Structures are given as C-alpha cells and as structure tokens.
Amino acid sequence: MLKADPNAGAYYICSPNNPTGTLTPLEDIAWLADNKPAGSVIIVDEAYIHFSNAPSAISLVKQGKDVIVLRTFSKMFAMAGLRLGLSFARPDLHKRMMRYDGPNMISMLNIVALAAGAVSLAQTDAIKARRDEMIAARSMTFDHLAKRKIRVVPGSAANMFLVDWKKPAAQMKTAFAARKIEIGRNWDIWPTMSRVTVGSMTEMEAFCAALDQILA
C-alpha cells in the first residue's frame, strides 16, 4: 500500500478482511504506522475481529500512533439495524473525525442502540461461545469442500470465506438458490469465486448437502 501511494492521507486496512476473512498481521500494521508519511492516518476496520483470536490494533492507539480503530455491532452482535459502532483513537484524531457531522450523528443515536451495545460489550462468554460455534461450522465446511476438491482462499479468521468454483459463480449461486440455499455475491474481477457467510452448523450442513446435489 505504501509503495502504491507513498503520500496518501489515509491507509485503510480491514482485518479480518472482507470478503476473504484473512488477517493482516499486527506487526505489518505497526510497520506501516512507523513508515507512513507524516500526518497521514491508518484506519483499521475491525468489524470482524470478534470472530478471531487475533490481537487488536488498539494496542497501537495506546502507543500514540496515528491509528484509528473502528468497530461495529453489526456482525458478531447481530445489531446491524441499530446502526451502532465505536472508534478508538487519540483525542486529537477523534477531534478531526468529529468535524464531519460527528456531534450531530452521536446525538442522534437511539437509546435502544446504546443500551444494547453497552450490555453486549460485557458478554465475553457469549462472544466466545458464538466464536467457537462459528469456527466449528466453518471447519466442518472447509473439510467438506476439501473432500470435493474445491478450493477456498486459505486463512479465513472471520465468519465468511471465498470459494473458487472453477466455473461461473453466478451459475453456482443460481443452483444453490434452487435448493433454497442463498450464498453471497461474486465480483467481475473474480468471476468464478463466491463469498459464503458461515451460519449455524445446521445451515452449513444444508449448504454442504446442496453442494453434493449440485456436483452430482
């Protein structure tokens, strides 16, 4: 990223990444923080961090780096409709962020979102249980795909992965839909790949069963 633009005002990193689920090592983010141009900011999107056991870039904020860490309640906490998130940064970076209608946005947060978000942050046991359930369902699915010799982009630490069908992904999406299984979208740059969200064990077993029917 630094080579692509050594003078950017901001460098954006989503870790775990969407749509691959892969992690950017914290040491790589720390290296960027130490080697970026003066005055630029690193934005680390940790929307999916609760699905992994990876260390957070919040440690770089604590060190006073030019880093802003973003979190959301839309993923692990399943509160997308409440439009609630939070950020971690030095006070001066937060002040720069807030000039873009920040005070108005904060004053418009509804009390239900604030109450639900505050309670969710303390649910460490529930977070671990959900993460463990997701990892088990994801591992089972990966094993099934491997038996069918279907490639998955390796290293997912989130509740999604990219699968390469080696054939038009749109056709596979239609085939799954015909069996009442909805898989994620694909992109023009990756015409044979689909983004698949990891659901419950029952849902992923249904995904695998539908796949077997399609391959047959």
Features:
216 residues, alpha/beta, Aspartate Aminotransferase, domain 2, Aspartate Aminotransferase, domain 1, 2 domains, four-stranded mixed β-sheet, 8 helices, globular
Task: Outline the secondary-structure elements.
Blueprint: E1 10-14, H1 26-35, E2 41-45, H2 58-62, E3 67-72, E4 85-88, H3 91-98, H4 102-107, H5 111-121, H6 124-147, E5 151-152, E6 160-164, H7 169-177, E7 193-197, H8 201-215
- N-to-C series of helices and strands: EHEHEEHHHHEEHEH
- Overall domain count: 2
Main CATH class of the largest domain? Alpha Beta
Category by helix and strand content: alpha/beta
Identify low-pLDDT runs: none
Architecture per CATH nomenclature, i.e. the level-2 architecture of the largest domain: 3-Layer(aba) Sandwich
- Mean pLDDT over the residues: 94
Task: Estimate the helix proportion, in percent.
Answer: 40-55%
Q: What gyration radius follows from the Cα positions, in whole Å?
A: 20 Å
| CATH fold annotation of the largest domain | Aspartate Aminotransferase, domain 2
- Summed up, the helix count is 8
What percentage of amino acids are in beta strands?
A: 5-15%
Strand order of the largest sheet: 1-2-3-4
Please summarize the sheet with the most strands.
4 strands, mixed
Shape: globular
Number of strands: 7
Distance separating the two termini: 43 Å
Q: Any idea what the CATH superfamily of the largest domain is called?
A: Type I PLP-dependent aspartate aminotransferase-like (Major domain)
